[in-house]
Amino acid sequence: MVDETGLDFSDQISSLESKYQQDKWVELHGDGAGYNDPAIVTGIGSIDGKSFMFIGHQKGRNTKENIEHNFAMPTPHGYRKALRMMKYADHHGFPIITFIDTPGAFADLKSEELGQGEAIAQNLITMFGLKVPIISVVTGEGGSGGALAIGCANKLFMLENSAFYVASPEACAAILWKSAQAAPKAAEKLRITAQEHYRFKIADGVIPEPLGGAHADPVWTSQQIKFAITQAMEELGKMDTEELIRHRMLKYRSIGGFQEGTPVEPERKRNMKLSDLNAAKAGDLEAELEDLKKKILDAAGPSDPITSEKLEKLKEDVDQEISNAFISMGLQEKLESLQLELSKASDSSDNQTLNLLKERVDRIMLEFYHNLTRPGAYLGLKQKLEMLNMAHRLIELKEKGEKLKTEINQKVPAEVIAKMEVLKEAQKKLSEGDPFDEELVEEVERAKNELIEVLKSANLEIIYVKNRNIPPPPPDLAENIAKVNEEIVKEIERAINVTGLSEKIVELRAEIAKGSSVETVEKLKAEIQEQIVAVMDVTTLKEEFEKLNVVDLESPEG
């Protein structure tokens, strides 16, 4: 080749041959039951002449490869494939190296039918009993059981910018705050970073990455991973089988905090239902709402100090809840940035800039209201906003009522007011059992008509006139009224029995219960009334009623 082309590739070929002999790799496929899951890649390889079983998630480098590997979300076939290779490695004495980079196990219906949970559980059980060293490296993200199924190792390393979590921040935010927009807050609470895991002794080391991340210089990152693996193998290689299994068990037993020596009440019951707590809070808010209504309606005026104090407290609570909602929706930073731009643009006369900023404000508020109106989201804030709106409506109605009362009082002549006093005096006498004065009744009616005319002159429509605080009738009259009512009821019952209307009445109730049309209900009512009236002894009832009127007009002495 050198003679023909004048190019010498001897050094490059020697380098490739040396590399092939030093770090070999043979991929192994299938779960042994007829399926190969591309989301998990397995195979035998070597590092510095020592053979290892390699198992890892594979996402792909572009959209086509992402789809081909199902975004590194394994099905049960993938975990059973990994389990098969682990058992193979355990049988032949190959140390196991796993590379974790998955958002979690694939959670579709088919995977559940094929036993996704069982496959993961089987891997966890088996890994704790393997007699060979296991080293795991989190290269990207490690999500929940999908990561643990190949991650129960003697040594766990994480790349500097990788994450390991029980649930993704978006999923956690959706569960706890009912909004995936609160993902940054959830990520902070979950403590998913490599540094946090190392601090809590979950990870045994953090592997550095080049500036810009591992993908900026994959070769350099690979060398750092290789260095971490060889160092760990030097330590684990000195352990025998029993020590390896015990080392793996103790690693996971030491994770987390435990409290010992504190007596526990075995019979003590704890209510952990969040829904009960929410119900109690909702009940408190309803009680506060009723209390606020009562205070507004009973207040001497619209600006009552107690009412104003409660409203101010409610406004402060609503403001705080809205601020929290903006933060959980991820809108706080946008709002602060916009406020800064608005403060700069306020001195400017550029209308176009101001219009653009206004559009951005509208978009943020539209997003806020869209998130707020989602079912089940921000219930406390919604209830407090409803309370505040109700309070403002009541105060507004009360102010209008006070204003209207003042206007009416100004338009009512003094003579009408004097006659109203006469009316009150007549009602008082009647309640005390004094003789009934027909002239007084006529005067009362005249005063009532004059008052109606005054109200009409104030552009108020009189729908009906209601007697307030009607005094109870005298004892004798009340007794007579009760007797007449009893006779009327008996006569109606007799009429129903004679005409056999019981079935018709049951039919009417059924029609009302199922929400039939008004025409149908009214038609049935009319039929029942006609048949009752037709058989009732109206003459007797009329005589009794006339006797009642006579007694009403007679004086107590008469």
Ordered list of secondary-structure elements with their pairings:
Elements: H1 2-5, H2 10-22, E1 25-28, E2 40-47, E3 50-57, H3 63-68, H4 76-92, E4 96-102, H5 109-113, H6 116-127, E5 134-143, H7 144-148, E6 155-159, E7 163-165, H8 169-176, H9 183-190, H10 194-199, E8 205-207, H11 218-236, H12 241-253, H13 274-298, H14 305-328, H15 332-345, H16 351-372, H17 379-411, H18 414-431, H19 438-457, H20 475-499, H21 502-513, H22 518-535, H23 538-553
Parallel strand pairs: 3-4, 4-5, 5-6, 5-7, 6-8
Antiparallel strand pairs: 1-2, 2-3
Helix pairs in contact: 4-6, 8-9, 13-17, 14-17, 15-16, 18-19, 20-22, 20-23, 21-22
Summarize the structure.
The protein is α/β, with parallel strands linked by helices. The chain contains 23 helices and eight strands. Strands 1, 2, 3, 4, 5, 6, 7 and 8 form an eight-stranded mixed beta sheet that branches.
If you average the pLDDT, what whole number results? 78
Portion in helices: 55-70%
Identify the quaternary structure here.
single chain
The 3D shape can be described as elongated
Low-confidence stretches: 272-283, 551-558
**Counting H and I runs of at least 4 residues, what is the number of helices?**
23
Using only C-alpha atoms, the radius of gyration works out to 43 Å
Main β sheet profile:
8 strands, mixed
- Measured by DSSP, the beta-strand proportion falls in 5-15%
Quantity of strands, as a count:
8
Straight-line N-to-C gap: 145 Å
User: Which structural class matches the secondary elements?
Assistant: alpha/beta
